[in-house]
């Protein structure tokens, strides 16, 4: 069987001032799409067309999106006839002048290939899935873990369901329920309650007679768009079976709305530094308002400023995004003292911080530098990046557990760090990914929605929409 692989994946933060240009996207074509999951399906002839992704940031520019979309459509037309299409997407992509990018892209693909070619998409659970996407695609299947541990399993299961469509000639019905609940991802951890129990329901629903798969989307709260919310969707042999599973799970989510919360200690910047300073052993502090993995700029120097003021020692900060500072360090060389103006270049709501530092390490590609300033070891990156994996620290000659305080521009800790952190305090800091979403200037999100609004009722059955192929 011949299946095309194509898609654009982006988590769009609409509160940032940083647009996503074509140059910001990591674009792969042909054999560059070397996902090992695809290689597992020996019976599939893959037409590897184009996949693109980028660090979470502002809306993709119209020109960038249209360029990629047109290339995908041209590639699909040339690859016809196809037995199916697999699309690795995200679920929270916004495009300037268009809005919901996933729906626009999948609808365009559907219009090109017609109603008989099955389309399946894998999604991040931090997506805002609207009914139009459920109507255009045959299969939508999302991650079931946050922090994410099941990316490969999700893509594998999505492809398996697509192949089921192809081999059986059957197309499932889909039921979609928008739950009017807006949550930052850090309040919807799947390893703690109530997320743990809710996500454990998914395999139970999957196992029911006639059900193909069920998904629960946490939503993406830093997108001020009409579709922002938690969503439930279920694929099944018939509409009534799909509806029953979706309505049941959506109702359970709504009943638990007041129980979603942070699973770690929280404090403001100053208090989190004080707590870490009084602790015995290593404490990880996350600068959640400047979380690059949720669209934060990654260059707010406020945390570093507070650490210096507190005279904190044996501290690692990873990191600050500042291309000019990195290149200055590269040019100066290791062992040299430099005067830097750090940050405040991307999120211009904050001023750069002037420091004197000694360059201790420069990465081989010249894109990262490690400096020492006021007893604080600071990683500076030329691009916006989240330090989420241990290998990133090892590559710089750093062991996070050797420090008393580790500050990272994240919200929740990603799995490798979460598994080793002796203690984690999340700082409720300012920035484009402010965790206190009640403080964000929402204008477009569909109201009422909890917790921005509280005194209203929700009827899951009334909110459910069911689609069958051809509807």
Summary tags:
single chain; 471 residues; alpha/beta; 6-stranded mixed sheet; 28% helix; 24% strand; globular
Strand order, sheet with most strands? 12-20-13-19-14-18-17-16-15
Q: Low-confidence parts lasting 5 or more residues at pLDDT below 50?
A: none
Mean pLDDT: 97
Query: What composes the largest sheet?
Result: 9 strands, mixed
Cα-atom Rg, whole angstroms? 23 Å
Q: Helical residue percent?
A: 25-40%
Strand tally: 21
Number of domains: 2
Quaternary status of these chains?
single chain
Given helix and strand content, the structural type is alpha/beta
How much β-strand is present in the residues?
Answer: 15-25%
**Can you count the helices?**
13
Report the span from N to C terminus: 26 Å
- What characteristic shape results from the CA principal axes? globular
What's the topology here?
Elements: E1 2-9, E2 26-29, H1 36-39, E3 45-53, H2 62-79, E4 84-88, E5 94-95, E6 99-100, H3 101-113, E7 119-123, H4 131-136, E8 139-142, H5 151-168, E9 173-179, H6 195-206, E10 211-217, E11 230-236, H7 239-255, E12 265-267, H8 269-278, E13 283-287, H9 302-309, E14 315-321, H10 323-332, E15 337-342, E16 353-362, E17 368-373, E18 376-381, H11 390-394, E19 405-408, H12 415-420, E20 424-427, H13 460-463, E21 464-467
Parallel strand pairs: 1-3, 1-4, 4-7, 7-8, 12-20, 13-19, 13-20, 14-18, 14-19
Antiparallel strand pairs: 2-3, 5-6, 9-11, 9-21, 10-11, 15-16, 16-17, 17-18
């Amino acid at each position: 069987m011949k299946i095309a692989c194509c898609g654009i994946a982006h988590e769009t933060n609409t509160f940032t001032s940083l647009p996503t240009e074509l140059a910001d996207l990591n674009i792969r074509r042909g054999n560059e799409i070397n996902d090992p999951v695809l290689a597992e399906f020996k019976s599939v002839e893959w037409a590897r067309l184009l996949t693109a992704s980028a660090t979470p940031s502002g809306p993709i520019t119209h020109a960038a999106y249209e360029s990629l979309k047109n290339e995908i459509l041209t590639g699909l037309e040339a690859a016809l006839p196809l037995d199916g299409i697999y699309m690795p997407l995200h679920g929270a992509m916004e495009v300037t002048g268009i809005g919901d990018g996933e729906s626009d892209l999948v609808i365009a693909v559907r219009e090109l290939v017609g109603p008989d070619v099955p389309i399946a998409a894998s999604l991040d659970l931090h997506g805002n899935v609207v009914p139009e996407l459920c109507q255009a695609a045959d299969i939508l299947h999302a991650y079931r873990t946050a922090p994410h541990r099941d990316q490969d399993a999700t893509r594998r299961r999505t492809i398996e369901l697509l192949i089921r469509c192809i081999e059986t000639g059957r197309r499932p019905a889909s039921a979609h329920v928008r739950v009017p609940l807006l949550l930052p991802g850090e309040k919807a951890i799947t390893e703690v309650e109530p997320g743990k129990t809710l996500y454990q329901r998914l395999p139970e629903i999957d196992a029911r007679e006639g059900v193909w798969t069920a998904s629960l989307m946490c939503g993406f709260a830093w997108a001020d768009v009409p579709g922002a919310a938690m969503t439930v969707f279920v694929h099944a042999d018939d509409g009534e079976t799909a509806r029953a599973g979706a309505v049941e799970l959506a109702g359970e989510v709504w009943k638990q709305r007041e129980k979603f919360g942070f699973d770690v200690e929280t404090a403001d910047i100053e208090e989190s530094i004080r707590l870490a300073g009084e602790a015995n052993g290593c404490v990880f502090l996350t600068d959640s308002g400047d979380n690059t993995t949720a669209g934060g700029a990654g260059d707010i120097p406020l945390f570093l400023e507070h650490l210096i003021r507190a005279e904190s020692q044996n501290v690692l900060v990873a990191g600050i995004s500042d291309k000019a500072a990195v290149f200055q360090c590269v040019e100066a060389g290791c062992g040299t003292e430099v005067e830097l103006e750090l940050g405040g270049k991307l999120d211009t709501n904050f001023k750069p911080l002037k420091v004197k530092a000694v360059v201790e390490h420069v990465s081989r590609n010249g894109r990262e530098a490690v400096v020492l300033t006021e007893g604080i070891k600071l990683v500076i990156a030329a691009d916006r990046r989240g330090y989420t994996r241990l290998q990133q620290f090892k590559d710089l000659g750093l062991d996070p557990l050797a420090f008393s305080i580790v500050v990272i521009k994240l919200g929740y800790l990603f799995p490798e760090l979460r598994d080793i952190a002796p203690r984690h305090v999340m700082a409720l800091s300012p920035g484009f990914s402010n965790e206190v979403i009640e403080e964000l200037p929402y204008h477009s999100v569909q109201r009422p929605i909890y917790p921005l609004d509280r005194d209203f009722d929700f009827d899951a059955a009334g909110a459910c929409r069911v689609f069958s192929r051809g509807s």
